[in-house]
Amino acid sequence: MPAIADKKHWSTVHVLQNTLVTWWTILRICLEERLVYRGDFALGTLMRFLPIVTQIFLWGTIFETISGKIAGYSYHDFIAYYLLTMVARAFSSMPGLASGIATEIRDGSIKKYLIQPIDMIGFLLLNRLAHKLIYYGVAIGPFALVFFLCRNYFPSMPPLETIIAFASSLVMGFLLGFFLEAAIGLIGFWLLEVSSLLFVYMLFSFFFSGHMFPLDILPYPWNYVFESLPLQYLAYFPAAVWLGKIEGESLVTALWIEAAWVSFFIIVCRIAFQRGVKRYSGYGG
Amino acid sequence: METIRIEGLRKTYKIYQKQEGLRASFRGLFRRRYRVVEAVRGIDLSVDQGEFVAFLGPNGAGKTTTLKLLSGVISPSSGSARVLGHVPWRRENAYRRRFALVMGQKNQLWWDLPAQESFRLHQQIYRIEPAAFVARRDELVDLLEVGKLLGQPVRELSLGERMKMELIAALLHSPEVLFLDEPTIGLDVVAQHNIQNFLSYYQKLKKITILLTSHYMKDVIALCKRVVIVTDGVIVHDGSLKEIIDRFSTHKVITLQFADHGLPHDINRFGEVIEEQAPRLKIRVAKQTVTDSLAAILQLHPVEDVSVEDPPLEQVIAEIFTSVKQESDSTGKRAISKI
Question: Which of A155, A163, A182, B82 is the most buried (most CB within 10 A)?
Answer without folding.
Answer: A182
